[in-house]
Amino acid sequence: MNDSHGTGYAAHREDILLAGKTGTAEIKVSKEDTSATELGWFAIFTAEKTEENPILIISMVEDVKGRGGSGYVVGKDKQVLESWLN
Description:
Helix content is 19%, strand content 30%. It is an alpha+beta fold.
């Protein structure tokens, strides 16, 4: 979330300390399968214990292949996060 090279950085904010984890799961018939579906997920939460309004968002999007993998889900969660905080 705070490393500009990380996938979750797209949801980074300066006004609140957040932590998050992204992931992608491939649903394959075999290791050689190149047409597999990819499930992208992202979990984001408030990292400061003193935060008055803690946040926990967990989401998954089916078939993120060709859409940016778990980065696609980060973008979707960022919209929810922006709405909640603004």
